[in-house]
Each structure stands twice: as C-alpha cells, then as structure tokens.
Amino acid sequence: xxxxxxxxxxxxxxxxxxxxNIIGNRRIWLTCSGILMLIFIxxxxxxxxxxGIDFTGGTTIEVPLPNxxxxxxxxxxxxxxxxxxxxxxxxxxxxxxxxxxxxxxxYGVLIKTRLVDxxxxxxxxxxxxxxxxxxxLGISINRESLAVEKVGPVIGADLTRNTIWAIIIATLGxxxxxxxxxxxxxxxxxxxxxxHDVLFVLGVFSLLGQEVNSNxxxxxxxxxxxxxxxxxxIFDRVRENLRARKKGETFDELVNDSVIQTFRxxxxxxxxxxxxxxxxxxxxxxxxxxxTFAMIIGMVAGSYSTIFIASPLWVVMRNWQDKRAAAKRGxxxxx
Length: 335
Prior knowledge:
- By secondary structure, this protein is α+β, with helices and mostly antiparallel strands.
- The protein has helices spanning 4-11, 26-46, 53-56, 71-78, 123-137, 153-181, 184-208, 214-243, 251-261, 263-283, 289-329, and strands spanning 50-51, 58-65, 92-99, 105-114, 147-151, 211-212.
- The protein folds into two domains: 4-51 and 155-326, Multidrug efflux transporter AcrB transmembrane domain (Multidrug efflux transporter AcrB transmembrane fold); 58-151, Alpha-Beta Plaits.
- The strands form two sheets. It has a four-stranded antiparallel β-sheet. The chain has a two-stranded parallel sheet with strand order 1-6.
- The protein is elongated.
C-alpha cells in the first residue's frame, strides 16, 4: 500500500509536497483566470463570433464523383470567374467517401456556402458549379444524383438554441453527479471550472475569428466531459485522504497534497491526449480543423482549471461553509 508520506516524497522538489503550494497561491491562479475571462467575455460581446453555415444558413451541394478528390483541388477548380457567389474564402469544402448497399465505395464532395445578401445560391450558380467540376475532372455528373439543401436562418436559430440547451443540460447533469458522489461544494467548484473552460474556448474563437459550426459544438461538449473526468480524479484523491486525515491537518493542506499526488497523472494524460489531437489537427482534413483546434484549446484550459481552478475553489467554498457553520455554533472555524 502506497502511503501519502511516500507519495509526498516522490513528488517533492526540495521541501516536500507542501513546498509546492498550489492551494496557498490560489489568489494568483483565480485572479489570472478572472482577468482572462473578462477579456474573453468582452470579445464575445463586442466582436461576436464568426458563425458558420450551420448557424447563419446557406446552401449545401452534395456532388457524387467517380474518384476521390481533396478539398484544395476542388477549391482550385471552382476559383474561376462566374462563381464568385460561392465565396470560397468562407465556404466549406468537404470530400467524402461511403459504402453503398452493394458494398462499393462511393466518392463525392460536399460544398457548403453562406447566404449571399440574405439569399441562397441560385439554381444557375449551382449548375455552373457542377458544370465546372465536370469540365475540370472530365466526367459527366447525373443531375438526379445531386443533393442540394438550403438551410435557412430559422434552422440556424434552432441549432443555436439546441446548442445552448445541450451545454446547460450537460452541465447540470455533471453538477448533480459530482454533488452526489462527493458534496455540493465540490460539484459547484467543478461546474465553475467547466464554465471557465467553455468561456476559454469561446473567447479564443471570438478573438481569432475562427468559424463556429456544428463541429465546434461537438468539441465543446467533448471538452466538458474530458475536463470533469480529470477533476473527478483529484476530488477522488481528496476523498481518500479525508478518510486518513491527520490530526491538526487543515483542509487546505489536504487538498494541496491531493493535487500534488495526482499532478503527474494529470499532466501526462493531458500531454499525450493533446499530442494525439495535435496530429489530427496537422494531418487531418480541412473539415476537422475547427473541431481539433477547439479540442486543443479546451484540453489546455481543462488541464489548467482542473488543478488551478476547481480544487482551489472547493477549498474556498469549503472554508466559507466551515466558517459559517462555526459562527452559528459560536466556535472558531478549522481551515
């Protein structure tokens, strides 16, 4: 059995685990995060987001092709006079492949364009787009196999509303789960850390003008699950240490020891996961850029908040709760 003393010795730098006083320096971490949050909230309010077609509405053209193509190839083919309405700078070009009922691989490309002056792509522009692909690839495309979908702003508004509800429901579910497994204060601290992570990702995307689409929503929900999982590992160690709490040991010291004991595990897990997602960001297709970029930003924020936000906040709330209870009893609070 590995004792807490042994763990302290393993992770100590010079003066033992408590020489690394993460909890004692909580004002620094919380102040830095607070300043960042104000910057991100300001950007969200005044700059807003670069909303993708999923939210703003637009036209989607699914073109079947005999062979595989890449997004840059298709973009180069369509970057010609007469197709300016495609607005390729903001359009999403996504090659795909799928198996049909006979088990044969079918190739194609999905072209998503924004509304042009509040209008969908005209049938004439759609026809020019298909004709240009035919000319460049030397093929004939069956018009009956085309799939043209027009997504209006109303559908985009529904997606926005559903996205907000998905985040709220996921957050409330996590709050209930963590509160039942540990205590309400730890659940509240964990949820505040999640809000920090979500605001971090939203703020970075707002500042950089990165496109926010349905892939981004999936990334945010994934980050929420990833971040709380890491937080629960630390909270679980706190609960174990509470059972073996030494006489005179404060809650601040106990949580600080717990964070240090799980520090290497948290950092190693985060680094290896981020490296994997980084490879996907660098080597994956254009359609995965927003998803993987949001994941990288969210994982960095989640790794930070797990150690420097969630645990210190739990200490602050627990100490406040103890002081309040002690005040009612007329006895001094034990930190």
